[in-house]
């Protein structure tokens, strides 16, 4: 009796999106930068587009995948190689989300460390710590210090000194970027990176976490 062929393994929603994240990382791009290079809407590969408001999985279209591959000089075979652990280990990368998502406690906990499953990957210099993550700037509200599409590398474990640029989140969920002017047991003083905004003095009890910006890709 002839042996029955084993059923083909189906790719999962998570595997496909992870492979696209790795494709972007290998090209040293964020998911939104990959979409722009491919001539697509910048939000095409964003995390927010992967699950519908009703909680259904949304898959990337064949056209968008083909354009992403063409824009990075890759083939479908290359994409297949990026699926699974082998592809993930081939590219040094850090967890990645948009700056606005840093307010989400399901993605960054109250210690300023990445958590949950809503993260992408982006290729950035490796740090000797397990909790570093990257944030992408959207819009020009932080210009000229940071512009739309810039990616900052954040290290919650690196010591912070006066004059360092940091990301801070308050207990109310506000996320801000500034230069640390002073930090005491009672207050945290930040100087915004844009001259149009006033300095901020926050009660230490109202600051959930502060993490140093250690690198930026512009």
Structural commentary:
The chain has a 9-stranded mixed sheet with strand order 2-1-3-4-9-5-6-7-8. It has 218 residues and is an alpha+beta fold. The chain starts with 12 loop residues before the first helix and ends with a strand. A hairpin with a 4-residue loop joins strand 5 and strand 6. The radius of gyration is 20 Å and the shape is elongated. The protein is built from 5 helices and 9 strands.
Which features would summarize this protein structure in a list?
218 residues; alpha+beta; 9 strands; 24% strand
Topology:
Layout: H1 13-26, H2 31-37, H3 62-71, H4 76-81, H5 85-90, E1 94-98, E2 120-122, E3 133-136, E4 151-155, E5 165-170, E6 175-183, E7 187-192, E8 200-203, E9 207-217
Parallel strand pairs: 1-3
Antiparallel strand pairs: 1-2, 3-4, 4-9, 5-6, 5-9, 6-7, 7-8
Separation of the first and last Cα atoms: 63 Å
Ranges with pLDDT <50 over ≥5 residues? Answer: 85-91
Main pleated sheet:
9 strands, mixed
The average pLDDT value, as a whole number, equals 85
How much of the sequence lies in strands comes to: 15-25%
The main sheet orders its strands as 2-1-3-4-9-5-6-7-8
Tally of alpha and pi helices: 5
Instruction: Give the fraction of residues assigned to helices.
Output: 10-25%
Q: What is the element string, with H for helices and E for strands?
A: HHHHHEEEEEEEEE
Radius of gyration: 20 Å
Tell me, briefly, the overall form.
Answer: elongated
SS elements, strand count: 9
Structural class determined from secondary elements: alpha+beta
């Amino acid at each position: 009796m002839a042996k029955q062929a084993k059923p083909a393994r189906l790719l999962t929603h998570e595997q496909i999106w992870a492979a696209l994240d790795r494709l972007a990382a290998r090209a040293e791009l964020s998911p939104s930068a990959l979409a722009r290079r491919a001539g697509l809407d910048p939000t095409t590969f964003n995390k927010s587009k992967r699950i519908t408001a009703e909680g259904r999985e949304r898959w990337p279209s064949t056209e968008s995948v083909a354009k992403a591959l063409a824009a990075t000089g890759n083939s479908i075979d290359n994409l297949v190689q990026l699926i699974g652990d082998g592809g993930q280990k081939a590219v040094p990368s850090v967890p990645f989300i948009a700056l606005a998502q840093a307010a989400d406690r399901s993605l960054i906990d109250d210690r300023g460390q990445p958590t949950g499953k809503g993260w992408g990957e982006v290729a950035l210099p490796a740090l000797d710590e397990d909790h570093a993550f990257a944030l992408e700037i959207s819009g020009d509200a932080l210009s000229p210090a940071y512009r739309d599409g810039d990616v900052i590398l954040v290290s919650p474990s690196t010591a912070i000194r006066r004059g360092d640029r940091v990301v801070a989140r308050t207990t109310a969920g506000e996320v801000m970027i500034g230069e640390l002017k002073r930090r005491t047991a009672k207050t945290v003083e930040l100087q915004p990176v844009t001259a149009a905004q006033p300095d901020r003095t926050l009660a230490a009890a109202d600051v959930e976490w502060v993490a140093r910006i250690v690198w930026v890709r512009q």
